[in-house]
Amino acid sequence: MYYSHFGLKEPPFKITPNTEVFYTGGNRGAVLEALIYAINNGEGIIKVVGEVGSGKTMLCRMLQTMLPDKIESIYLANPSVAPEDVLHAIAFELQLKLPKNADRLKVMQVLQNHLLARHAAGKQVVIFVEEAQGMPLATLEEIRLLSNLETKHDKLLQIVLFGQPELDENLNQVNIRQLRERITHSFNLAPLQTKEISEYLIFRLRSAGYFGPPLFNTGAIKKLAHAADGLVRRVNILADKALLAAFAENEYQVTPKHVQAAIADSEFGLEKAKSIAKRSQVLMWVVLLALGLALGYAVSMWAQKQSLTQVANPKISVAESQPKVGAPVSEAKPSEMQLATPSSVPMANVPTNLQADILTQRLNATSTWLASQPPDTVSIQLMGASSDVQLKNDLELLSQQIELDNIYVYRTKVNNQPFLTVLYGSFANRFEATQALQKLPAELQKNRPQLRTIAGVLQETK
């Protein structure tokens, strides 16, 4: 919409990772080079940690394009894979043919034979695990066991874990220390500083065909940097909306008021404002508590002083120091002692009955279905969502592509946050499930669906 207004040939701030506009500033280029070196020469597990929107996915895409031809990469993006399913998921990504009803040992044998064959051909295999902080610890441990596959001189499989800071917290647990000790290289994607954000903005604009003076003035950059917390994805979102706001006012430079309009239109801007308000409220209570303690200490000291005065001057009786019987006593009114309570609870996040219909129907059907299926039944995991409203909309679209009666939904947690997972179908073995997966609409296959067992699903819902 605003492209011609600013002399742009294409969208400058798309959030979809595009390796053609990889920004090497903010230490990103150095991390990429170090990762390439570590994958080529390392023998352990590699870890990359960064906040949501810091550029981990872009880094992963860059690795896939820049690694030498001798290195073959596979991508494991499903964070909720159960331990008994992860080997099958990796075998699926490697397009390995497995016997029907192959157990864990058989899958491991097939996987090892494949890796030995690739090693003999001078190839190296690396697996990128995204959202590793959301994986069950048992699944991470199962992945760690893959690092034991080796020849006398080389590892057969290189593993790179990408995750949010919670990944470090998970790895600090005692029962996962064996995995932690196998990590030979650790990288951290720190937030961009204001100067780096300024450079990033002009870099993306130049890449989109802009050749004029800086579009964002100094005040706009500072405001945008503060609101984005140095996260690349937020910078992209705010910059795009700020340009749109400037276009709407027929102006050719982005100022703080345009950035403010972008912040007001962004969900995370609202969240940050709420967070600041919450911190202010906490600070207020801390101050009140400190004042209360100080007042209590002052009263205690006064009472102690009075007591000492009475001991030093026996002419003052205890009776004289107490209030007279019948004297009026000041009491606080109940209304003054009660804390204010909200008059109503926000209902923005509560779905309406209409919104809940299809979701409730599938949740209920899934409970019955899970209870009636053998543990080795295989299903296809299609997608997931973090909110009921979002998933309800997804289910309505899904029901137009596949039969609703074969869609199942269950609740679980990812990163200790509520999450809804969508499954499709019931199959006697993985062979039948794989055949069904290949027949799914191409649009659904783009989500890289995974095979799941009922045993793994039940363990996840505990």
Kindly give the count of domains. 3
- Tell me the major beta sheet: 5 strands, parallel
Helix content: 40-55%
Instruction: Say what the CATH topology of the largest domain is.
Output: Rossmann fold
| Corresponding CATH superfamily of the largest domain | P-loop containing nucleotide triphosphate hydrolases
Radius of gyration, in angstroms, nearest whole number? 30 Å
For this structure, the quaternary state is: single chain
Mean pLDDT: 82
What is the CATH architecture assignment of the largest domain? 3-Layer(aba) Sandwich
**CATH class type of the largest domain:** Alpha Beta
Number of strands: 9
Order of helices and strands: HEHEHHEHEHHEHHHHHHHHEHEEHHEH
Count the DSSP helices.
19
How many angstroms separate the termini? Answer: 49 Å
Lateral arrangement of strands in the main beta sheet: 2-3-4-1-5
The stretches of 5 or more residues where confidence is low (pLDDT under 50) are 314-355
Approximately what portion of the residues adopt beta-strand conformation? 5-15%
How would you describe this protein?
This protein has 462 residues and is of the alpha/beta class. The protein has three domains: 27-189, 3-Layer(aba) Sandwich (Rossmann fold); 192-268, Helicase, Ruva Protein, domain 3 (Orthogonal Bundle); 353-460, Sporulation related repeat (Alpha-Beta Plaits, 2-Layer Sandwich). 50% of the residues lie in helices and 14% in strands. It is built from 19 helices and nine strands. A five-stranded parallel sheet has the order 2-3-4-1-5, sandwiched between helices. A four-stranded antiparallel sheet has the order 7-8-6-9. The model is unreliable at 314-355 (pLDDT under 50).
